[in-house]
Amino acid sequence: MKEKIRCRAQSLGFDDCRFTTSAPPETGEHFLSWLGNSFHGEMEWIARERSIELRLDPEKILPGAKTIICLAKSYYEGEALEDSIESCVARYARIPDYHKTLKPTLEQLTEYVNSLTSPAANSLSFLDTGAILERDLSQRAGIGFIGKHNNLISKKLGNWFFLAEILTTLEIEADLPERNLCGSCQKCLDACPTGALTAPWVLDSRKCLSYLTIENKRDIPKEYHSAVGTKFFGCDRCLEACPWNKVAPPRNALTSHISELPLSTKKLEQMDDASFKKKFASSPLLRAKRDGLLRNLLIAQKNGLNLPIE
Ligand code: B12
Ligand code: SF4
After folding, report:
1. 158-171 residue pLDDT tens
2. Which residues line ligand 1 (CB under 6 A)?
3. Which of 6, 89, 216, 283 minimizes the number of CB atoms within 10 Å of its CB?
4. What angle do CA 151, 154, 159 make, to 5 degrees?
5. What integer is the mean pLDDT of 214-231?
6. d(Cα 156, Cα 164) in Å, to the nearest integer?
7. Looking at residues 223-228, what average pLDDT do you find?
């Protein structure tokens, strides 16, 4: 059954597929102390009682669950041209929104998993937004190890990949966890321009440019404006610094959609929310909303961003 699922995952375009049990994640205590320190900032959804309860015990999400199928999908598409508009956006956001593009394939795989037994298994799939500690469980399944920058690093993919999971009532033998291979390397911590990585494996979202430019709906505190530089959506500096990326060849052909977006402060100012939603519908940039994107562009522009901004 394991090989069948792996083969189907591969034919659907996933770059890795591994298995773990549905037992609680090992680093629940870390998650609780992260919340206790308010490192989630204003992402209140992650701190709700029910969200915590489910993240600490996947079996509460699906009673009778036995296995978690962990999947990785690379988004590494080679290097963007220096000073191009793509280079000012986090890599994951240069391509159309993975929540939309990966969902149909994840659903196909989930249906396939259910069809393997009679009576059919019961399964639920997750892609970023579910109440599940994706990195933790994926490390236990052996997809990779959690780096000091908090991201999962794979020996074959580097750190440029999305995670997705299928929680299922099927009982499948677990794979071995990956061991941590960071060693004494601290390049990601040194690369962070805001000190958001307050210690290895500890991220204070309130200082993280990914949070400040995407999730945060308020002004970006002045003290971080120069750190934004010209990168107006998300941040990849800690990920770029990881030496494990040297082993990861580009997996996909460049499919950037960024240069087709109306990324002009003037155009954004003239746009109402409905037309913004329409124009940015398939882009991850939608998440920042019109006001957030405009806020970011104005800061980046002050820092020298020289793009089609009229
Ligand atoms: C909230 C969130 C954010 C927040 C908070 C980030 C954070 N570090 O928690 C913000 C907005 C800042 C963010 C940013 C980014 N995110 Co995000 N995010 C999430 C989300 C929705 C939840 C993460 C979470 O639960 N955080 C709480 C913390 C405490 O949990 P954790 O990070 O999983 O940490 C665990 C481990 O670090 C471990 N641990 C802690 N200490 C130690 C110590 C040791 C020794 C060990 C071994 C383990 C260990 O315990 C923790 C708890 O279980 C996940 C999807 C999901 N459902 O999991 C995506 C997710 C983590 N994000 C993702 C991505 C791609 C990003 C960005 C790269 C996007 C960008 N370029 O701008 C950045 C990276 C910033 C960074 N350095 O982490 C991917 C990561 C893929 C990967 N290869 O790891 C995910 C998995 C989404 C996906 N499905 O692909 N994100
Ligand atoms: S994403 Fe940027 S700001 Fe956030 S921890 Fe990494 S380097 Fe620091």
Report:
1. 999 999 999 999 99
2. 25, 27, 30-31, 34, 43, 46, 90, 92, 127-128, 130, 132-136, 146, 149-152, 159, 161-163, 180, 201, 203, 205, 208, 210-211, 215, 234-236, 238-239
3. 6
4. 45
5. 98
6. 17
7. 98
Between 176 and 78, the more confident residue is 176
Ligand 2 pocket check for 91: Cβ under 6 Å: no
The SS3 assignment for 152 reads strand
Map tokens 């969200």 to a residue. Answer: 51
| Higher-pLDDT residue of 83, 129 | 129
d(CA 242, CA 159): 8
Residue 309 has pLDDT above 60, yes or no: no
The residues, any chain, with a CB within 8 Å of residue 231's CB and separated by 6 or more, are 88, 89, 90, 209, 213, 300
Query: What is the chain's mean pLDDT, rounded?
Result: 96
- Cβ-based burial of 177 (10 A; exposed 0-12, middle 13-18, buried ≥19): middle
The secondary structure of 242-284 as a DSSP string is -GGGGG----S-----GGGS---HHHHHH--HHHHHHHTTTSG
Closest CA to ligand 1's atom 42 = 201
Residue-range domain boundaries for the chain: 2-82+93-168, 187-302
What are 216's two structure tokens? 């945060």
Question: Which residues, including other chains, have CB under 8 Å from residue 252's CB and lie 6 or more apart?
Answer: 74, 75, 76, 77, 95
- Give SS3 for 298: helix
What's the token pair of residue 112?
Answer: 């396939």
- Of the chain, the end-to-end C-alpha distance in Å amounts to 57
* pLDDT confidence tier of residue 308, bands split at 50, 70 and 90: low
Structure tokens at 163: 């995670």
Residue with tokens 């890599």: 91
- pLDDT at position 249: 83
